[in-house]
C-alpha cells in the first residue's frame, strides 16, 4: 500500500510525494479518503472548472498525472483530445464494466493501458436483470401500484401475469453478466439461448449467430452486451418485430443498444408485450410516453447501485491503480 | 395429459359438489366430465349421494357444510392452502383432502423471489421514482443492498419452499430453513425454531401452511431477531404473521422491509403500509398464472378420477 509512495522517496529523506492521480468521478467520503491516502488527487468535479481547462492545467502541472480514474456512462470521453491535453497519462481506470466512453484504439496507439471494474458489479447487474424480468412477466410493480392506490377492495384482483417456467430467454452478450443471468434463470425453468461475438464452447446454452434469429426464437430478450460500434441499436425495428407481440425485452446494457424510438413505437402499438429498462439513450431523460405504460418497468440506472458494490468498486479501483504504479499487471485490463 | 374421462353411460357423469362457483374456465372444463352441483343448491337426495366436494376457492368450508354430506369421502381443493376447510372435521370422519399444490408451486416460488429482489433492490419504488419524473429533478436513486450472498431463511420447505430455495441458491444466496421436521435430502441448514432461523437470516421467506401451530409464527420476537436490516417475504397466508405487530415493526425500523402477497383480512391491507417505500405489496397473486390453470385443472380432475377409480390420490394433504 505504501509501496507506490516509497518508490518515489527522495534521496534526501524528505517524505515521499504521492503519485498524482486525475479523478473524473464523484466519489463518496470513504473512497475519497482512500484515494487521498495513496495519491495526490486532482479532482475534476471538486474543481468546478470546465473539462478542457482542468485537463490543460493537469497536463502542465509539475508532477503531471500518469493515471486517471474516469467514470463510465457520463459526459466525459477519453479520446484523442483528452489524451493530447494530458500526455503524461499512461493508464486509464474506468469505474464501470463498460468502456464505451474510452477510445480504445487511441489508447492502444499511444500505449495507454485501460482497466475496468471487472466482475465487481456482475452479480448485482444479473440480480437486477432477473428482478426486472420477473417484474415485467408477473406484473409485480404494476400490481404493487394497484394495491398501494387502495384499488384491491374496489376493483378486485389485478390482471395476472405470465409464467416464467418454460419461457425461452435469449441473452445478447454472454459475458460475466450474461452468464450469471443465465445461471439464475435456469433455476426458474427458463430455456436459455444466446448471441455473442462468437460462440462459447464451455457453455451448454444454444448459440444463435444473429440477433434477429435469437429474437424470433425467444419469449424474452435480455440485452447484456457492451456498447460499441457493432452493438449500437443492435435491437432495432426488425429485431423487435421478430420478438413479437408476446415478447418482452429487458435492457441492463446501455440505452443505445436499443433503438429507443422504435421500442416506444412497438410498445405503443402492441407489437411487443412489455419491457424492463434500467438504461436509456439519454439519461436521466426517460421518454414520458413510458410513464403511463403498465407493461413497462423502469429503473434509474441502478443495476450496479448497491452499497456492497460501492465498497467493492473502491477496493478494486485502488487495486488496479496500485498495480499500475508498482509496475505490475493490471487486475482487469481491457484489451482491444 | 389428463386421464381419460370415466365410462359414460347415458350421461352418468360422477356427481361432484362445489363449495362455491368456480372460475368460468374451470367450470367449463370440468362440466364435461362431472355433474357439478353447488352444495348450497343441492336438494336432499343430491346431498345424501355426494361423495366428492370440490373446494373451488377460499370461501370457508365449515363442519356444518360437511355435516350435510353424509356420504362425503373426498374434499378436493383448488387452492394450495386448505386452512379454510375444517380439517379436524375431515380427520374425524375419515374424509381425504387433496389440494392442487404441485401445479402452483413454481409460480409461487417465482413470485416469492420476485418479491425478495423487489424489496432488497427497491425495484417497484425505483420504478415509481422514474414514473414521477424524479430522476430528472432529484438525481440518482439511493443505493440499495445486494441480493447475492444474503442469508435466506425459508419457513416451510415443501414444494414451494424448496423451489424458492433452489432459485435463491442460483443467486448465490446462503439458504437455510425451518420445517416441522428436517429433510435429510435438502442441502440446506435446518433450524428447529423460526426464532433461531430469523436470528441467522437476512431475509425470511414464509411458504408454509397455516395451521394452529403456525398461526402468528412470525411475532415481535421473531422480527426483532431478524433485525433492522432484515426483510420478511410472505407468500403463505396472512395469518402466519402478527400483522399489527408487523406494521409496528416496520414503522419503528425493527425490521428493514417486507414483501407481502397475503394479509390477515384480504383484500384489506393495513393503510400504514401504503406510505412505506421499503414494502412491496401484491394482491394474493403469487400463486396464479394463466399457464398454470391447465396444470391445476389436470391435477384436480386427476385426483377426482383417481378417487372414483379407487386409485391412490395424487396430491393428498396430510391432516
Structure description:
The complex is a heterodimer of chains A (336) and B (319). Chain A is an alpha/beta fold and 336 residues long. Chain A has 14 helices and 12 strands. In chain A, strands 8-7-6-9-10-11-12 form a 7-stranded parallel sheet. In chain A, strands 2-1-3-4-5 form a 5-stranded parallel sheet, sandwiched between helices. The longest helix of chain A is centred in the C-terminal third of the chain and has 19 residues. The radius of gyration of chain A is 23 Å and the shape is elongated. The relative contact order of chain A is 0.13. Chain B has 319 residues and is of the alpha/beta class. Chain B is 36% helix and 14% strand. Chain B is built from 12 helices and 12 strands. Chain B has a 7-stranded parallel sheet. In chain B, helix 11 links the parallel strand 10 and strand 11. In chain B, helix 5 crosses helix 8. At the A-B interface, helix 7, helix 8, helix 10 and helix 14 of A face helix 5, helix 6, helix 8 and helix 12 of B.
Q: Beta-strand level of the residues of chain B, as a percent range?
A: 5-15%
State the share of residues found in helices of chain B, binned by percent: 25-40%
The biggest chain-chain interface is: A-B, 57 and 55 residues
Which regions of chain B contain 5 or more consecutive residues with pLDDT less than 50? none
| Pattern of helices and strands of chain A | HEHEHHEHEHEHHHEHEEHEHEHEEH
Give the overall average pLDDT of chain B. Answer: 93
Q: Give the helix tally of chain B.
A: 12
What is the first-to-last residue Cα distance of chain B? 29 Å
- The proportion of strand residues of chain A reads 5-15%
Amino acid at each position: 500500500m505504501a509501496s507506490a509512495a516509497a518508490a518515489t522517496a527522495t534521496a534526501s529523506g524528505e517524505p515521499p510525494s504521492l503519485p498524482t492521480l486525475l479523478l473524473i468521478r464523484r466519489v463518496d467520503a470513504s473512497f475519497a479518503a482512500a484515494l487521498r491516502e495513496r495519491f495526490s488527487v486532482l479532482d475534476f468535479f471538486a474543481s468546478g472548472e470546465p473539462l478542457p481547462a482542468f485537463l490543460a492545467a493537469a497536463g502542465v502541472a509539475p508532477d503531471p498525472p500518469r493515471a486517471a480514474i474516469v467514470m463510465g456512462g457520463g459526459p466525459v470521453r477519453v479520446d484523442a483530445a483528452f489524451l493530447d491535453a494530458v500526455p503524461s497519462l499512461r493508464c486509464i481506470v474506468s469505474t464501470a464494466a463498460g468502456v464505451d466512453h474510452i477510445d480504445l484504439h487511441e489508447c492502444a496507439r499511444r500505449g495507454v493501458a485501460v482497466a475496468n471494474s471487472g466482475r465487481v458489479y456482475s452479480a448485482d447487474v444479473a440480480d437486477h436483470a432477473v428482478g426486472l424480468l420477473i417484474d415485467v412477466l408477473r406484473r409485480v410493480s404494476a400490481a404493487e401500484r394497484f394495491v398501494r392506490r387502495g384499488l384491491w377492495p374496489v376493483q378486485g384482483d389485478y390482471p395476472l401475469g405470465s409464467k416464467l417456467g418454460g419461457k425461452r430467454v435469449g441473452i445478447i452478450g454472454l459475458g460475466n453478466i450474461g452468464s450469471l443471468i443465465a445461471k439464475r434463470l435456469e433455476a426458474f425453468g427458463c430455456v436459455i439461448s444466446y448471441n455473442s461475438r462468437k460462440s462459447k464452447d464451455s457453455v451448454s446454452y444454444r448459440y444463435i449467430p444473429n440477433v434477429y434469429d435469437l429474437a424470433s426464437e425467444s419469449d424474452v430478450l435480455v440485452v447484456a452486451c457492451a456498447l460499441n460500434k457493432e452493438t449500437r441499436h443492435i435491437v432495432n425495428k426488425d429485431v423487435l418485430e421478430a420478438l413479437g407481440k408476446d415478447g418482452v425485452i429487458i435492457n441492463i446494457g446501455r440505452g443505445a443498444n436499443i433503438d429507443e424510438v422504435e421500442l416506444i413505437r412497438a410498445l405503443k402499438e402492441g407489437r411487443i408485450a412489455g419491457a424492463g429498462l434500467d438504461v436509456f439513450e439519454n439519461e436521466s431523460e426517460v421518454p414520458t410516453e413510458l410513464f403511463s405504460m403498465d407493461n413497462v418497468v423502469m429503473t434509474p440506472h441502478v443495476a450496479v447501485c448497491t452499497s456492497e458494490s460501492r465498497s467493492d468498486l473502491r477496493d478494486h479501483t485502488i487495486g488496479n491503480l496500485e498495480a499500475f504504479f508498482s509496475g505490475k499487471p493490471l487486475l482487469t485490463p481491457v484489451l482491444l | 395429459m389428463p386421464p381419460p374421462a370415466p365410462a359414460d353411460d347415458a350421461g352418468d357423469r360422477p356427481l361432484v359438489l362445489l363449495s362455491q362457483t368456480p372460475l368460468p374456465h374451470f367450470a367449463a372444463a370440468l362440466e364435461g366430465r362431472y355433474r357439478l352441483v353447488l352444495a348450497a343448491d343441492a336438494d336432499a337426495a343430491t346431498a345424501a349421494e355426494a361423495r366428492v366436494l370440490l373446494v373451488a376457492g377460499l370461501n370457508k368450508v365449515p363442519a356444518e357444510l360437511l355435516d350435510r354430506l353424509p356420504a362425503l369421502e373426498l374434499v378436493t381443493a383448488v387452492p394450495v392452502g386448505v386452512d379454510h376447510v375444517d380439517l379436524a372435521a375431515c380427520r374425524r370422519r375419515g374424509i381425504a383432502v387433496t389440494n392442487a399444490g404441485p401445479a402452483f408451486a413454481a409460480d409461487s416460488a417465482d413470485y416469492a423471489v420476485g418479491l425478495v429482489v423487489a424489496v432488497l433492490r427497491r425495484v417497484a419504488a425505483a420504478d415509481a421514482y422514474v414514473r414521477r419524473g424524479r430522476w430528472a429533478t432529484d438525481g440518482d436513486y439511493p443505493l440499495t443492498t445486494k441480493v447475492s450472498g444474503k442469508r435466506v431463511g425459508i419457513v416451510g420447505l415443501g414444494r414451494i419452499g424448496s423451489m424458492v430455495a433452489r432459485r435463491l441458491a442460483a443467486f448465490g444466496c446462503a439458504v437455510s430453513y425451518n420445517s416441522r421436521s428436517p429433510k435429510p435430502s435438502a442441502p440446506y441448514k435446518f433450524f428447529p425454531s423460526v426464532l433461531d432461523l430469523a436470528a441467522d437470516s437476512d431475509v425470511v421467506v414464509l411458504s408454509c401452511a397455516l395451521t394452529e401451530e403456525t398461526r402468528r409464527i412470525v411475532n415481535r420476537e421473531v422480527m426483532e431477531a431478524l433485525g433492522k436490516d432484515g426483510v420478511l417475504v410472505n407468500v403463505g397466508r396472512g395469518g402466519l404473521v402478527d400483522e399489527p405487530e408487523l406494521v409496528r415493526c416496520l414503522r419503528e425500523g425493527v425490521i428493514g422491509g417486507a414483501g407481502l402477497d397475503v394479509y390477515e383480512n384480504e383484500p384489506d391491507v393495513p393503510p400504514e403500509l401504503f406510505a412505506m417505500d421499503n414494502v412491496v405489496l401484491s394482491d394474493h397473486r403469487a400463486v396464479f398464472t394463466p399457464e398454470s390453470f391447465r396444470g391445476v385443472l389436470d391435477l384436480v380432475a386427476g385426483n377426482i378420477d383417481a378417487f372414483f377409480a379407487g386409485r391412490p390420490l395424487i396430491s393428498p394433504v396430510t391432516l
